[in-house]
Design a protein that fits this description.
single chain, alpha+beta
Length: 107
């Protein structure tokens, strides 16, 4: 699950955005670790500030979210990394409405 109402995440949806994209992600990561499950976490380009002028962002690009939604998704990424990921490798890419999204998973 994910809270994807980017505009609402700035005001009346701010609490729900955090509950789903941060707290919810933490619960899923902890549960996956507990049972030894593989976790695929799909993030967003909103974790970046949009200032890249050449090429595409890669998995090691510097993050700098400009809104609440991007900030919550970045916190979710950090939780997944802290809880269960031992290596961070893009498995592939999704193209969604012209946007390239990284797919990452735990070992």
């Amino acid at each position: 699950a994910a809270y994807t109402a980017v505009d609402k995440a700035e005001d009346d949806g701010k609490e729900m955005n955090h509950l789903v994209n941060v707290t919810g992600t933490e619960y899923v990561a902890l549960g996956a670790k507990e049972v030894g499950a593989t976790l695929v976490y799909v993030s967003t380009d909103y974790v970046f500030d949009g200032t890249l002028t050449n090429g595409e962002y890669d998995v090691n690009a510097k993050t700098n979210p400009l809104n609440e939604y991007g900030h919550a998704k970045l916190l979710g990424e950090q939780i997944v990394k802290e809880v269960i990921i031992t290596s961070l490798e893009p498995l592939g890419y999704l193209v969604n409405m012209g946007q390239t999204l990284f797919i990452q998973c735990s070992d």
